[in-house]
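Record ATP-binding protein, 74 aa.
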Amino acid sequence: MEVKIGVQYAPRELVVDSAQSADEVHKTVAEALEGNGLLRLSDKTGRTVIIPVGKIAYVEIAEQTQRTVGFTVS
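=>
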């Protein structure tokens, strides 16, 4: 699951390749926004990203798409 997080005053978005499902990521984001003030997400390699929810501009949750290589004939 690819999660893109826009952070206020940051020129680039954070991209986390999470092993969690879309529903699990959505629940984690919702709980962070409602309560503790920090969003914690881990990627597939074990790296953890911690973001203060007051600085989050947006969160985009998307399935990863396979890119095709070469030419295709329709």
